[in-house]
User: Fold this.
Amino acid sequence: MEISTQEQAINANLTDKQFYELSEHITKLYGIKLPLEKKVMLQSRLRKRLAALKYNCFKDYLDYLFENEEENEFLIIEVSTNKTDMFRERSHFDFLENTYLPEYLKSKSKNDELKIWSSACSTGEEAYTTAIVLEEFIANNEAFNYSIHATDISTKTLQIAHTGIYKEERIKDLPIDLKKKYYLKSKDKVSKQVRVKPNIRSKVKFDVLNLMDRVYNTPDEYDIIFCRNVLIYFNKDIQAQVISRLVDRLKKGGILFIGHSESLMGMNLPLELVKPTIFRKLQ
Assistant:
């Protein structure tokens, strides 16, 4: 019996040589390091892409990838995890609400605008969580202007972020009052989805940006920058380069948040440690 192209694709094997070619390509474009232990994972994730393109082997896929720049968008979606939730790493948002924002209110001038950058925003949960924290703080304190800029390398994840539509499980741990105040529940009981309300979605501007770019052409300098759970994909040299460029876009006294599993140890940067994974720019 003849085996179909799709069956061949879902059983295709990635050789070590092909893996290294892919790994070098991914590192060059996105800074993401993939050791050989990730070969099975990458092979599994890309098999469905082979099937979609009607290729039965990885050789044909690599030939196509290296000749078609637009395929990189599909590649990065399969490589990056994009797993996040609302209020992930809650201690950062607690610090924002209980420490940073009260201090900001005391020091800000009348026409100041608090500017925040979610630099690896994935599907947008981090940016929307930040907006909710700010809205809750403003509701109980003095009002002030703020803007949130959210960027990612993947246009597909940004499309999800723009819509603000998520599986209901993403907000399962939120208090019921926040769910009612900031999310719309789908009338379709099968889909079990929620959507961030328009007043919160309007507070966030989404753009494509690759942290491997030599210069970050962002419109502002920021009071707060989030760069969480992305450094783990980079080697130490690239981590230092990325953080250095981010710090260049941070105002003096501004705050940088990194992921709880990440470290800036050994990097020569104008930052002081405020709390674990929370840094303030010195100059």
